[in-house]
What we know:
heterodimer, A: four-stranded antiparallel β-sheet, B: 0% strand
Amino acid sequence: MSLHANAITVRYGKTLAVEGASCAIARAEVVGIIGPNGCGKSSLVRAMGALLRPADGLVTLDDAPVRSLGARERARRLAVLPQAPVTPPGITVVDLVRMGRAPHRPPHAAHVERAMTDADVLSLRDRPVSSLSGGERQRAWIAMSLAQQTDYLLLDEPTAALDVGHAIGVLDLVARLARERSLGVGLVIHDLNLAARACTRLVAMRDGRVVADGPTEDVLTSDFVRTVFGVEASVERDASGRPTCRFEGVVPDPRAISEV
Amino acid sequence: MTPGRLSSRLRGLIFIAVALTVLALVSVLSIRTGASDLTTDQVLNALGAGPPEPGAGATWLERAAWWVFGTGDNEPTPDQRIVWSLRLPRTLVATLAGGALAVSGVLLQGIMRNPLAAPNIVGLTSGASLAATLVIAAVGAGASAALPAWAFAGAVLTGLLVYGLSWQPGVGVTPIRLVLAGVAITAILSAVTTLVMITTGSAQAVTLWMAGSLGAVSWPDASASLPYVGAGLAGAFLLARSLDLMQLGEDSAASLGTRVQWVRFGAIGLASVLAGAAVAAAGPIGFVGLIVPHITRMLIGPRHAWVIPCAALGGAALLTSADLVARALSEQVPVGIVTALLGGPYFLLLLYRVRALG
């Protein structure tokens, strides 16, 4: 039982964004999708979320091709939170979260309350979303995705616009929900140390291909950071084995580095 | 965007009550006004007495009105004839056209998420105008029987054309392409219209039609547009939930189970039918389709299940009022000018007073 991308290729016109990428997200795990800018992370996530049609390959949701599911049926099992969602002017937090119930009939109010509680936005329920801080707004959107009550949740850079405190708040929330609700989470993330904190597994991409896939502590090594990102880093591990990177400098000529 | 603390439901109900009251008052005033002015009592008595028995060439709508409101009295008074046969259709067409244009604008703004989207900006009105111009140039303004049908076809075909030109394989249509294709088509169609007007010497007749006039409308206009307006409004209401979700952006809407491309296609189709029916009956009246949706959203919030019926009534109230004012000024003043003069300042006032428009 997983959300599975199988040899996905994505093309925009003649540009190849993703080339034969495979990865899987199981229930109750948080998978970080990492890699340099333009490596195809977002395209892979959009293909997995059925927001775009891959040129080749197949995405399956619990063994059924994701594009063969009806739009509403898919929306009850898989939620995607895009990188920069559009907040309609004037919409309140509770109205936004209610939209998460759209694929369900009838839209039980109890699920809306619970999603707001889980995402810690209950106290903001009647505030306009546009008046919230970046962190609060991101939590409101996550509450909307939670109200969708899916088995899988894909987040495209949920922490991109957040300071470190709010970023940790959002990621810890997601990690806790994955554990407690058995939610399968895939998230695109740039900050490797935040990724190490939140993710049970990392999928690394470069130039449209998946170049590493494994438990966070196995993937994140100084070799890996050098070859994928072209950055010299020393990676330390704390008592629980969680890696932390200390970045030292950019490798002078990343193209000289051997292929991973 | 959320003035006061009233719930959107209460605000919607207040809006509907006010719009209906204005519509009723203005309708009575409008029916009073004409070649021979009637008193309010005369109007109400004549309305209460029901329509005269329809003759052989009567439209289905007149027959329906007689069937529902007819009192069986075979000797209609002159007041009854004036009110039911001459003046009521004008008010009815103004109501239908105003509501249709406003909801057409709601649909277009809803799928394009662009505040400037409106039936006359994405080419629907220009399509109707070109078709009408061709008819006038070919057979003269007098042969107006065929004109509404051509104008309607012009609007719907233009809607399909703009949709087709915006469509990209693998992507579908995107709001920005719809807007740009619409603007380009508007420019081309307007140029061709002017060219036809000048080269065929039909400029005067066309200009008269283009100003948007309710002076010549009668029962055939009302009965021809009613089914399309009714179907368009019903269809728009069915799309309300999807339009709400579309406001979250294409990806979020799709992630919530909306078939984005079908909603866009449906909304453009319905907007074309609504605008086509309105322009066919009343000429290309501008401004209602642009401003009424904004006024409605500012007053009652973003939920389309409320915005659509409120905009329909608001558009109807605005256009009937504008028609009344236009006639009070002079029979020559086009109603389109008055909609702008009435709606514009009110819109600016709202813009100034309601902060969070964006």
